[in-house]
Write a structure and sequence with these properties.
Elements (H helix, E strand, L loop, with lengths): L1 E4 L5 E5 L4 H10 L7 E4 L5 H12 L2 E6 L2 E6 L9 H6 L7 H8 L1 E5 L12 H9 L3 E5 L2 E5 L7 E3 L5 H11 L5 E5 L5 H12 L3 E4 L3 E5 L7 E4 L4 H13 L3 E5 L7 H9 L3 E4 L3 E5 L8 E3 L11 H8 L5 E5 L10 H6 L3 E5 L2 E5 L8 E3 L3 H13 L3 E5 L2 H6 L3 H7 L3 E4 L2
Parallel strand pairs: 2-14, 3-13, 9-10, 17-18, 21-22
Antiparallel strand pairs: 1-22, 1-23, 3-5, 4-5, 6-8, 7-8, 10-12, 11-12, 14-16, 15-16, 18-20, 19-20
Helix pairs in contact: 1-2, 1-7, 4-6, 5-6, 6-7, 8-10, 8-12, 10-12
C-alpha cells in the first residue's frame, strides 16, 4: 500500500525513462533474428520483466543491466508461448507473428492486462490471415500456421497500436511487401519501424499507410529507445496539480503537444525547450474539455492523470474516452476523495471542487494508479492507495522520483 501526505508542492527536475510502450515491442522484435540485439534506455519496470520472462521461455538469453538489454539466440526458438506472461500482459500477444514467421507455426494464449475494457485481438488475427496464416482456437490458445507468409495489403478499421506493431513485426520476414492502411502513428510505433530498419527491413511511411518490405532474414541491431511521453506527462501534470513547478528532461516536446495545449487551456504556464518541458500552475485552474484520440490526439494513457487535475479546476470539464470503453476505474476512488464526477456513455463530467481529501482507495490499473497518487499529492490529509503493483508495471521508480520532487509518499506493508 502507498501512503501519501498531501499538500506538498512538487518542484524540480526529473529525467524521463525510456518508453514502456516502445520497450516491449522492441524486445519482442529480437525474436526475428539469431543475431544479438542491443536495446538501450530500457526502463526497470514490471512489464519489461514480464517480456523478458517470455523471451527466456521462448529460448533466448537476455542480459539486462543499467538500462541496457542485450538479447542473444543460444538455441532453437520455441514456438509455444507459456500462459503466465501472456495472461499477465497484453503486449505479449504480438510475439505470435514473429514466432509464426520463424517457426512456421505458433501457439499463443489469449492475452490479459489492465482492466480497462474490451480490447479484442480480431484485428491482429485478421492481419495475420491476410499474410497467409491459418488461425485455429483450442483450449484457450490461438494456433497459427503458415508454410510461407506473403506480403499483402491490410486495411485496419481502427488505427490499433498493437495490430500495427504486430503486422510490422510479421511483415519484416514475409515474402514481398506488406502495406497497412490506416495504421497507428504513435511515436512508439514509428520507433519500432526504425529498429526494424536497423535489422534490415525497409519501412516506408505515407499519408494513410505504412509499408514494410520483408527480408529472408534479419540481422542484429543497437537501438536507443525514445523517451516515455506518458511518464513525462504524468510528472508535468503533478507539478501543476500540486501548485509547484516540474521540469521533465530528455523528452521530445513534439510528442507531448496535445497535453501541453490542454495544460495551457487549464491555466498552467508551460515552457518548451529543445529536450525538456516545464509546467507550473497559474493563478487558478480552469475547466477544459478533452477527447482521447489516437496520436497526435490526446493520449488515452494520460486521461486518468489529467482527470485528477480537473477535479479541482474551476467550472465543469468534460472528458470523452474514445479509445478504451471502460477506462473509468479511477473514477470511484476519486469520488471517494471528494471529486464530483458523473459518467454518461463515453463522457465523464467533472465539476471542480475546492479540495480533495484523503481516503483509503484502490487502483484498478496502471494509469488509474498514477492518477490516484497525483490526486493524493494535491489532497488535504493522508491517502492510502492499494493496488500499488499496477504502478510498477509502467513507471520506473515512481515514488522515488516524486519524493525527490518534494512529495511525502512511501510504501507501507
Amino acid at each position: 500500500m502507498i501512503r501519501v501526505e498531501g499538500g506538498h508542492p512538487l518542484r524540480g527536475r526529473v529525467r524521463a525513462a525510456g518508453a514502456k510502450n516502445a520497450a516491449l515491442p522492441a524486445l519482442l522484435a529480437s525474436l526475428l533474428t539469431d543475431q544479438p540485439v542491443r536495446l538501450e534506455r530500457i526502463p526497470r519496470i514490471a512489464d519489461v520483466e514480464t517480456t523478458i520472462d517470455l523471451i527466456h521461455a521462448l529460448g533466448k538469453r537476455v542480459d539486462w543491466k543499467d538500462g541496457v538489454a542485450e538479447v542473444h539466440g543460444d538455441g532453437e526458438l520455441w514456438a509455444r508461448a507459456p500462459r503466465d506472461p501472456v495472461q499477465r500482459m497484453r503486449a505479449s500477444f504480438i510475439a505470435l507473428g514473429p514466432l509464426l514467421a520463424r517457426c512456421g507455426e505458433a501457439w499463443m494464449p489469449l492475452p490479459g492486462g489492465c482492466a480497462i475494457g474490451p480490447r479484442p485481438v480480431d484485428l491482429h488475427l485478421y492481419g495475420l490471415s491476410r499474410l497467409g496464416a491459418r488461425i485455429e482456437f483450442t483450449d484457450g490458445l490461438v494456433y497459427a500456421r503458415a508454410r510461407r507468409l506473403r506480403g499483402a495489403t491490410v486495411w485496419l478499421d481502427y488505427p490499433s497500436v498493437g495490430a500495427t506493431e504486430h503486422l510490422l513485426l510479421t511483415g519484416a520476414l514475409a515474402e514481398g511487401t506488406t502495406t497497412i492502411i490506416n495504421p497507428a502513428r504513435e511515436p512508439e510505433v514509428v520507433d519500432l519501424g526504425r529498429l526494424l530498419e536497423q535489422m534490415g527491413a525497409r519501412v516506408r511511411w505515407a499519408a494513410d499507410r505504412v509499408s514494410i518490405e520483408g527480408q529472408p532474414e534479419l540481422g542484429g541491431a543497437c537501438h536507443d529507445l525514445l523517451p516515455d511521453r506518458i511518464e513525462a506527462g504524468t510528472y508535468l501534470i503533478a507539478g501543476v496539480l500540486t501548485g509547484g513547478e516540474t521540469t521533465v528532461t530528455g523528452v521530445v516536446p513534439e510528442h507531448l503537444q496535445a497535453l501541453v495545449e490542454k495544460l495551457k487551456d487549464a491555466g498552467a504556464s508551460v515552457e518548451l525547450g529543445e529536450q525538456e518541458i516545464s509546467a507550473r500552475r497559474g493563478e487558478a485552474l480552469q475547466a477544459v474539455d478533452v477527447t482521447t484520440w489516437p496520436y497526435p490526439g490526446f493520449p488515452t494513457d494520460l486521461q486518468a492523470p489529467l482527470m485528477a487535475l480537473l477535479c479541482c479546476a474551476e467550472g465543469e470539464s468534460h472528458v470523452r474516452e474514445t479509445v478504451f470503453a471502460s477506462r473509468w476505474g479511477h473514477v470511484p476512488p476519486l469520488q471517494a476523495m471528494g471529486a464530483s464526477i458523473s459518467i454518461r456513455d463515453d463522457t465523464a463530467t467533472i465539476r471542480g471542487v475546492k479540495k480533495l481529501h484523503g481516503a483509503e482507495v484502490v487502483a484498478s490499473d496502471l494509469r488509474a494508479g498514477a492518477a490516484l497518487v497525483l490526486a493524493a499529492l494535491g489532497a488535504a490529509g493522508t491517502t492510502r492507495i492499494g493496488g500499488e503493483e499496477h504502478l510498477a508495471r509502467g513507471y520506473e521508480s515512481f515514488l522515488n522520483k516524486v519524493t525527490a520532487l518534494g512529495a511525502k509518499a512511501w510504501e507501507e506493508t
